[in-house]
Amino acid sequence: MFSKACEYGIRAATYIALRSLEGKRTSLKDIAKETDSPVAFTAKILQQLSKNKIVESVKGASGGFEIQKRNVHTIKLSQIVYAIDGDKVYHGCGLGLRECNGAKPCPVHDKFIGIRDGLKNMLETTTLLEMTRGLEVGLTYLKR
């Protein structure tokens, strides 16, 4: 459904949000380690997230990546997905076919529309704050 970069981007943003809520910045190496992502790949993803104003990069000895606390409450997963994968997740075929639409549907077209709409709703209503709450109670994927 999502590209590998997008999956890592969601994990990275969630980890940065968690650390930011603790009042801490986090380094590229720590983000890569905690999200089980290669450092160079993580750097490219963070560059995209920074360019789209989802994360902030602070240079210097006490630098690192952070998200303003007020933004943790408002950033939606859809913003992260859009920053990395664009909006293709909302338009693609469930089977990955190039020409799939109402006039020329694939075998799962009608069923997949409902799934895609549900996914869009979930992405547009889930905030980074909600993601960090899952981490705080140990319900998700990071190595903490």
Question: Which spans of ≥5 residues are poorly predicted at pLDDT below 50?
Answer: none
Strand content: under 5%
- Dominant shape: elongated
Q: Number of DSSP strands? A: 2
CATH fold-type name of the domain at 4-85 and 127-136: Arc Repressor Mutant, subunit A
| Rg over alpha carbons | 17 Å
The end-to-end span amounts to: 26 Å
CATH class identity of the domain at 4-85 and 127-136: Mainly Alpha
CATH superfamily of the domain at 4-85 and 127-136: Winged helix-like DNA-binding domain superfamily/Winged helix DNA-binding domain
Biggest sheet, strands in spatial order? 1-2
| Series of H and E elements | HHHEEHHHH
Briefly note the structural class of the backbone.
mainly alpha
What is the CATH architecture assignment of the domain at 4-85 and 127-136? Answer: Orthogonal Bundle
Description of the structure:
The protein has 144 residues and is mainly α. The protein has a domain at 4-85 and 127-136: Orthogonal Bundle (Arc Repressor Mutant, subunit A). The chain is built from seven helices and two strands; from the N terminus they run αααββαααα. It has helices spanning 4-21, 28-35, 39-51, 69-72, 77-85, 109-125, 128-136, and strands at 56-58, 64-66. The chain has a two-stranded antiparallel ribbon with strand order 1-2. A hairpin with a 5-residue loop joins β1 (56-58) and β2. α1 (4-21) packs across α7 and α5 packs across α6 (109-125). The chain is elongated and about 60 Å long. The mean pLDDT is 90.
